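Per reviewer request, we include the raw input and output of the structure prediction for the construct analysed in the revised manuscript.
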Amino acid sequence: MPRWKALPEELDPQVREFATQLRRLVDKSGLSIAAVADRTGYSKTSWERYLNGRLLAPKGAIVALAEVTGTNPLHLTTMWELSERAWSRSEMRHDMTMEAIRITQARDALGEFGGDGPGASRPGPGTGPGPRPAASGGWHGPESPATPPRPPAASPAPPAAPGRGRRRTAIFVTALVGALLVIAGAVLLTDLGGGGDDTAKVAESPPAKPSPTASELPAGVKCAGDDCTGEDPELMGCGGEFAETATTTKVGTAVVEVRYSETCGVAWARITEAAPGDTVEISSTQTDAQPQTGTVNADKDAYTPMLAVPSAAAAEACATLTTGVEGCTTAGG
């Protein structure tokens, strides 16, 4: 059976040539994918994706591979830059296609509910506004114009007694002024008393730290903070040169690590030297965020999706082995 799988047919020719060149370097070195992963610091799963054309390797992985295989990094990074542009163009075309599909679906949905989309009904010529209530309590549509009945003539009111109108006006004005004074007093007391504590609390609350915008992130990094939660660190560019091992521990025969990326503001757990079926979990000791989990397959290693954390000290990784052994790293240690 051949060592390599066939590259995807839809792969850009430039990316295909680059992936083929990476395969040749690995073959020439005589190293297994697991050995390449161990020496470059990138997981075996990631290298399988890079070498099978499912994901473009980050620049840091390419430089590390050049060092491992004794290849001139200048030539390899030049090929990577060309492939990176081709990959970006392919992603842009894919995003535009998906956007067009979403727009079409939205228009169709609006049409179904009587919006301005295809099939939406519009008033015909000469059709006036919708039905309005008649004076008698019924509804008149366009086919039966509303003609409210003439109200009966009211009996003339008797003339007011002299001076009575002026007295009523004076009483009304006095009552209005009194009510306004009561309202003003209540507002003043509220400002001086009850609202003081809440105002102080708001003033003491530190402003939330804004997440970096897309233009502030390094090239290849696609998310930061909460936007990264649940995402693959390698796919989103938070791994490799932008990550480090914050804490590590031994659980049975397995090694459990907390991987942390300050650039992305996230952490994830990685387990190696494990057995199929072993699980690993990353959680935050300072937030109520939902933990992220990963399961080991035949590769004997796995990592979890990312979890936004305020710092590396807030992240804790735990493993549960199929043998029943459990263990966690020490948060902050």
